[in-house]
Amino acid sequence: MQNRSFRWLPALLVALTMLGLTACNTMEGLGKDIQSAGRALEGKADESDGDESGSGE
């Protein structure tokens, strides 16, 4: 009886492992997207600093 109740355990472990690996890849991609957006925003801020310095004259 005990053997039958734990038949699902290996399948559960495989499913949780796959879910964990997928989450790692997703978070890595999200980090790269956020980093790219930050660089683009920083570039726009740098451009804006150059434009405003000459516009007051």
TrEMBL record:
Keyword Cell membrane attributed: yes
Biased composition (Acidic residues): 48-57
Domain of life: Bacteria
Keywords linked to the UniProt accession: Cell membrane, Lipoprotein, Membrane, Palmitate, Signal
InterPro entries membership: Entericidin
Stretches the record annotates as Disordered: 38-57
Signal peptide positions (record): 1-23
One Gene Ontology term, aspect cellular component: membrane
GO biological process: response to toxic substance
Database matches in PROSITE patterns: PROKAR_LIPOPROTEIN (PS51257)
Claim: Repeat is one of the keywords in the record: no
Family that this chain belongs to: Belongs to the EcnA/EcnB lipoprotein family.
UniProt-recorded name of the protein: Entericidin
